[in-house]
From TrEMBL:
Belongs to the SURF1 family. Keywords: Cell membrane, Membrane, Transmembrane, Transmembrane helix. InterPro entries: Surf1/Shy1, Surf1/Surf4. The chain crosses the membrane at residues 195-214. PANTHER family: SURFEIT LOCUS PROTEIN, SURFEIT LOCUS PROTEIN 1. It is found in: Cell membrane; Membrane. One of its GO terms (cellular component) is plasma membrane. This is SURF1-like protein. Pfam families: SURF1. It is a multi-pass membrane protein. Its main location: membrane. It comes from the Bacteria.
Amino acid sequence: MRRILFLLIFGLAGLAVLVSLGTWQVQRLAWKEGVLADIEARIAADPVPLPEAVDPEADRYLPVEVSGEMLPGEIHVLVSVKQVGPGYRIIAPFRTGDRTILVDRGFVPTTAKQAERQIGPTQVVGNLHWPDEIDGYTPDPDRAGNIWFARDVPALADALGAEPILLVTRSQTDPAITPLPVDTAGIPNDHLQYAVTWFGLALVWAAMTGYFLWRGRAPSESDAQ
């Protein structure tokens, strides 16, 4: 009897832990979906002028519209686009008033790396962004070949003589460049998978507990016969 009681308590305790973890992940899923919805609404909002003082945290994803001049000189950041293949993000300096910022003009295929692109007066609509694309495995840029492997905003700004402000276009600045607007696709949201995993483990745990309780009772029933 004590053995059955121990198995029951142990089984219920483990089940409670697994169910609570699954429930927590469901709550985290609802929270994350709310965060993503807020970000998507911010991204799609009407653009405003570039703030005088820009805060990388408070102004992340801020929609901005600027008028000015696309300057010569650009940096190529190696990327791959689904169903298209490898290519480059074109990062260019942009002068607006007495300020120079960075503009991510969008994507070109590798075959268009050396193509001439439109510069001069233009208007740009996009979102401010400071992407986190660097880790311990990111190679240093090949400056001689003008191939970068991440959008390191401070390093890009230093190389192009601009403020560390990156405006990712959602409007086309050149017919040969495909804009890659800011979106939430790169923000991980794995809470549903985690919830399914924990609830699945809870189901397995419950089945195993039931099996061991049944096995624990079997000898007693045999003895009674």
